[in-house]
Amino acid sequence: MNPLSAITAPTAPQIPSWVTGGLSANSTSESSSDFAELIGREVQNVNAMQNQAAGGVNAILTGQDVNEAEVLTAVQKADLAFRMLLQVRNKLMEAYREVQQIQV
After folding, report:
1. Residue 64 has what pLDDT?
2. Contact (Cβ atoms closer than 8 angstroms) between residue 2 and residue 64
3. Cβ–Cβ < 8 Å for 33, 12
4. φ, ψ at 60 (rounded to 5°)
5. Section 59-77 average pLDDT
6. Average of pLDDT values for 33-52?
7. 15-47 per-residue burial string, b: 16 or more CB within 10 A, e: under 16
């Protein structure tokens, strides 16, 4: 089985749902639960992208017949997705620290 069989021709970049405002305006507990689920899904998506890229690199290194351009694209997409997720985490940590410093 080709580890890159799920990769299709290059398409326009897909914007993650959490960037476009996938959160609903429900009650606070539902919103925080939705937000936690949303972040969890996106972490899983990034992990899947990294696993797919690693499988492609492994296929190249073991001499399997794969398209190097597709593997390079998968690696770059996984890297970009990870860096974006890291920046979201950094912003969340910064906001948490600011909330901690609020005096009541």
Report:
1. 92
2. yes
3. no
4. -65, -45
5. 94
6. 93
7. ebebeeeeeeeeeeeeeeeeeeeeeeebeeebe
pLDDT at 84 over 60: yes
Tokens describing residue 12: 């326009």
**HEC-encoded secondary structure of the chain:** CCCCCCCCCCCCCCCCCCCCCCCCCCCHHHHHHHHHHHHHHHHHHHHHHHHHHHHHHHHHHCCCCCCHHHHHHHHHHHHHHHHHHHHHHHHHHHHHHHHHCCCC
85 or 17, which is more confident: 85
